[in-house]
Each structure stands twice: as C-alpha cells, then as structure tokens.
Design goal:
10 helices; 217 residues; Arc Repressor Mutant, subunit A
C-alpha cells in the first residue's frame, strides 16, 4: 500500500510539472496587469492584485518578473503589440494616404466597439511615470515612436504620391495626430464621454485631408 501511494504521488507531481506552461503563465500575468493598470494606473496596482486577477501565486509572479515595473514594461509591450495588430488592416491599402485614412477610421471606431472608456496604457503610464522612472520612460518612448514611425512613413509617402495643398513636415503632423489621439482619450475618460474621441479623430482626419489638393479627374 505504501509503495502504491508513493508511486501515485510521483505520478501526480510529474503530471503537474508537465501541465505547467511558462508561456501561458506569463501571458496571464501580463494580461491581468494590462487590465488593472488600464483601470487604475501603476501606483494603485499591487503585485497581490495582479496575482489575484490572474489566478496565480506570488511564486509564479516572481519567477517571471523581478519587480512590478518589469511587468509594467511587459504589459506596455503587449498592449502596443495588440494595438499595432489592430491597425494592420490599414496597411493593406496600396495608397499611403488611404492607409492613413483607414488608420484614423479604425482609431475613431474604437469607442463604438466597447462599453468601456477607451484608454491607452502608453499614455496613462507616461503621465504617471515618465518623470520618476527613467527605465520606464525609455520603454514608453520606444513604443510611442513605433506608432510615430508608422504614421511618418505614411505621410511622407502620401506627400510624394499626392500634390500637397500646403507644405508640411510629416513628423510634425504625426506628432499633432498622436497628441490629439492621446488627449482625446484623457478628456474622454475625465468627462465620461467616449463620443469626444470620435469627434476629435474625425477632425484629425479632416486636417489631414486639408493638407492635400483634391484629385484631378
């Protein structure tokens, strides 16, 4: 009987180890962090809350992440990757100006696809941490620049393919669009009015349209 019990315990331990999936565990921790920090920011989110939200232990947390800031950086990276995949259909257009229009349409459509206020983890943590956490600020700048690079390339290519109505710097226009986007989410969250995002993005689209002369038939 004792031998059978020992063998059974060994089988259970082996099965438990086999069923562990480090990639899945890490993903659950990061997903929980994204949800919590989107709702309440970095400072208000604790490791205990992340573990409770993910259904995992502190041992699992510290196996994958040394600090809360480390998982916050991973959460921003995951959130940015999700956002860029959301924008991917815009890149299917052959015309760079149409790409930008589609990108703005996707952004402006987000509030209609969710019951929650639309927020950006990059923007939220930038406001909270950029002045106090140098490593986090550097990571946030990197993710910010990823969006900027995409839009600058679209505007540069559009300027070459279409006749501008006025001369403009693609980088400056990209910063304007990014600032409008982040600002609209901040105001929308404060006012609890997601329709503000739709309105701001629509005006951003009109601004881009006004940079180019009408197509000549």
């Amino acid at each position: 009987m004792l031998g059978f019990t020992y063998q059974l315990v060994r089988m259970i331990i082996k099965a438990t180890k086999t069923s562990r999936n480090p990639t899945e565990t890490r993903r659950k921790l990061i997903d929980a962090t994204v949800r919590l920090m989107l709702h309440q920011g970095f400072a208000a989110t604790t490791v205990d809350q992340i573990c409770a939200e993910s259904g995992l232990t502190k041992g699992s947390f510290f196996h994958h992440f040394d600090t809360k800031e480390a998982i916050a950086q991973a959460a921003v990276a995951a959130f940015t990757e999700m956002g860029m995949s959301l924008y991917a259909p815009a890149l299917e257009a052959a015309d760079p100006l149409e790409q930008l229009y589609r990108l703005l349409d996707i952004m402006g459509g987000l509030p209609t696809q969710s019951e929650n206020i639309v927020a950006c983890l990059v923007g939220m943590l930038s406001q909270e941490m950029a002045l106090t956490h140098p490593a986090m600020r550097e990571a946030l700048v990197g993710h910010m620049n990823g969006w900027m690079t995409m839009v600058i390339q679209m505007l540069t290519a559009a300027k070459a393919a279409h006749r501008p109505k006025v001369d403009f710097d693609p980088e400056q226009v990209a910063w304007l669009l990014y600032s409008l986007w982040q600002g609209s989410m901040l105001v929308s969250k404060t006012q609890q009015k997601p329709e503000l995002i739709v309105s701001v993005v629509r005006q951003a689209r009109d601004h881009v349209n006004g940079l180019f002369a009408p197509n000549e038939s």
